[in-house]
Specification:
Radius of gyration: 21 Å
Largest sheet: 7 strands, antiparallel
Number of helices: 17
Distance between the termini: 39 Å
Helix content: 40-55%
CATH class: Alpha Beta
Length: 477
C-alpha cells in the first residue's frame, strides 16, 4: 500500500538567483530570537485504494497517546485530521521535534491501513462526512447554520497549511486574548508591519504552495482551494465557503494604522456575534476554548487568539515545500521585527515588489495584490506577473537570509526555474495516467494520484530532516 521506502534525496541545490539590481543589502542578523512560532498541517485520510475515508476519530484515538512533541486534533470533517507543532524558537527545533513524532504517525497509520493525503483538495469526488453532532460539535453546527449547508460541506473539501509567528513581547495580553490597552507605539508599529507583510506575502506563498488544480474531479485552475474557500467576489467556485459573508474569508486589506486594525477585528467579531445570536448561539458556544474577539476570522491573515500573526491562506503540500514556506514566513517576519522595517504599499511596490530601501520594504498596493491573487489561483507560475512576484521575493530572501536559510528554499528555487508548482506536477501525473483530456478526472485517476501522494510522505520526511540536520542554532533564527 503506502510505501515506507525512500528514493534518493533531492539533487544538488541550484545556484541562488542574483540580488535585485540596486537593492540595498542590510546586514544579516544571527542574534537569538525570543519569538516563538509553530505550524499546523491538515491531512485527509485514505484507504488502501486512495479513497477518502471518514475515520478521523478512530485514528486520533489510536495516535494521540503515542505523540509527545506534536498534537493531533479533529477538524470539521470526519475524513480530516490536523497535526500541530508546539511552539519553538527556531525552524530546526520545530521540524526536529515534529518529525520525531510524525514518523510515529506514519508507522501507526500504515499499521491501521490508512494513508495521509496532503494536497489542498482531493482530486476526485470527496465523499467526506461533516461533523454535525449537536452535543459534541456545537461549533460546527453553528458554523453550518450561519455560512450555509453547501458552503459548510465545501469547507470539508479544503485542507491547508497554517504558520504562526508570535506578536511582539508585551503587545498581547494572554489573559484576555487581545492586545494590551497601553501597547506602546513602537510595538503597535511592529504589529502593523508584521500584519501587512503577511498580506503582501499571501499571493506569493499561495503560488509556491498551490497543490489543488482539481475540485470534485473538475479542473478549476491552479489553486481550487482558494477558489472554493475564500469567497472572493468574481473568482469563487459555486458555494465557496465564505461567499455569503466574504468579510470573514477574503484576502485582508492592508491596515493603515494600528487602530484601524483593531477596529476591523472588533467590527468583524460584532458581526459574527450578531449572526450567532440570530441562530440561537453565542460566541461562547462557538469558541474552541476561551472566548476571544480574534476567533471571528478565517481570512488568509489572522491575528490569532494565541498571540500570533497567522498565515493561513496556503494549500497543504509536500513536507519540503511546507518547510520552505515556514522558513520564509518565520525569518522574513523576524527580519522585519528585528530591524524595525516599515512595510509600505506603494507604486514602487507595484513595479518593484519587495524592493528594500533603507528601512522600508516596498510591497504592492491593494489593487495589484488582488490581481496577483486571481492570476495565481487560475494560472500560477505561467503568469508573468506571478512569476516575477515570486522571483523577487526569493531575491529578497537571498539578500537577507543566511546561506543555510536560503538553501532550505530549494523547492521554491526549482519552481521559479521550471515555472512549475505542485499543481503543475499533479496535472502532469493526470496526463500520464489519463491522456490529454484531463479537464475532468476519472475517479480511478484521482485515486492513483492520491495513493502516490501518500506513498511519497516517508521520503518527504527524510528529505526535510536532512535539510535541517546541519543547521546550527544561530543559523535558523
Amino acid at each position: 500500500m503506502f510505501k515506507s521506502q525512500c528514493n534518493p534525496l533531492l539533487s544538488k541545490l541550484l545556484n541562488p538567483t542574483k540580488a535585485l539590481k540596486g537593492m540595498i543589502r542590510l546586514p544579516r542578523f544571527n542574534m537569538p530570537s525570543t519569538r516563538m512560532f509553530g505550524i499546523e498541517l491538515e491531512f485527509y485520510l485514505l484507504n488502501m485504494d486512495g479513497v477518502i475515508i471518514n475515520s478521523a476519530d478512530t485514528v486520533i484515538d489510536e495516535l494521540k497517546k503515542k505523540l509527545h512533541e506534536i498534537d493531533i486534533k479533529k477538524e470539521c470533517a470526519h475524513s480530516m485530521i490536523e497535526i500541530t507543532s508546539f511552539p519553538h524558537l527556531s525552524s530546526a527545533e520545530v521540524f526536529g521535534k515534529f518529525f520525531s513524532d510524525f514518523e510515529t504517525i506514519l508507522y501507526e497509520a500504515e499499521r491501521l491501513e490508512v494513508g495521509l493525503f496532503n494536497y489542498g483538495c482531493y482530486p476526485g469526488k470527496n465523499q467526506t462526512l461533516m461533523r454535525t453532532d449537536m452535543l459534541t460539535d456545537t461549533r460546527y453546527v453553528a458554523y453550518r447554520k450561519i455560512f450555509g449547508e453547501k458552503e459548510f460541506l465545501n469547507a470539508g473539501k479544503c485542507i491547508g497549511f497554517h504558520c504562526h509567528y508570535s506578536l511582539p513581547h508585551n503587545s498581547f495580553n494572554r489573559n484576555v486574548k487581545f492586545f494590551f490597552l497601553d501597547i506602546k507605539p513602537r510595538k503597535q508599529k511592529t504589529v502593523l508591519d508584521l500584519f501587512n507583510l503577511a498580506v503582501a506575502l499571501d499571493p506569493a506563498l499561495t503560488t509556491f504552495l498551490q497543490s489543488s488544480p482539481y475540485f470534485e474531479g473538475a479542473l478549476a485552475g491552479k489553486d481550487a482551494r482558494l477558489l472554493a474557500y475564500r469567497g472572493e467576489p468574481d473568482i469563487s467556485l459555486p458555494n465557496s465557503v465564505y461567499s455569503k459573508y466574504p468579510q470573514f474569508g477574503t484576502l485582508n486589506e492592508y491596515a493603515s494604522d494600528f487602530n484601524e486594525l483593531v477596529k476591523r477585528i472588533r467590527e468583524r467579531s460584532a458581526k459574527l456575534s450578531t449572526l450567532l445570536a440570530e441562530h440561537g448561539y453565542s460566541l461562547k458556544d462557538f469558541a474552541k476554548e476561551e472566548v476571544s474577539l480574534l476567533d471571528s476570522s478565517w481570512k488568509p491573515v489572522k491575528i490569532n487568539a494565541h498571540g500570533t500573526v497567522e498565515s493561513r491562506g496556503m494549500d497543504m503540500n509536500t513536507l519540503p515545500v511546507i518547510a520552505s514556506g515556514t522558513v520564509v514566513i518565520k525569518n522574513l517576519s523576524r527580519y522585519v521585527e528585528k530591524n524595525n522595517i516599515h512595510v509600505q504599499p506603494s507604486e514602487t511596490g507595484d513595479s518593484e515588489p519587495f524592493a528594500l530601501e533603507d528601512d522600508t520594504l516596498h510591497v504592492p498596493q491593494r489593487e495589484r495584490i488582488l490581481e496577483l491573487q486571481k492570476n495565481s489561483a487560475f494560472v500560477g507560475m505561467e503568469n508573468p506577473m506571478v512569476h516575477d512576484y515570486t522571483r523577487r521575493l526569493l531575491r529578497l530572501t537571498k539578500t537577507i537570509f543566511s546561506k543555510e536559510q536560503y538553501q532550505s528554499l530549494h523547492p521554491f528555487v526549482m519552481m521559479i526555474d521550471e515555472r512549475k508548482t505542485t499543481s503543475d506536477k499533479i496535472l502532469e501525473q493526470a496526463r500520464k495516467i489519463q491522456g490529454k483530456n484531463i479537464e475532468v478526472l476519472d475517479q480511478e485517476t484521482a485515486q492513483k494520484i492520491a495513493v502516490k501522494c501518500a506513498d511519497h510522505l516517508y521520503k518527504d520526511v527524510l528529505t526535510t530532516k536532512k535539510t535541517f540536520e546541519g543547521f546550527t542554532t544561530s543559523s535558523v533564527y
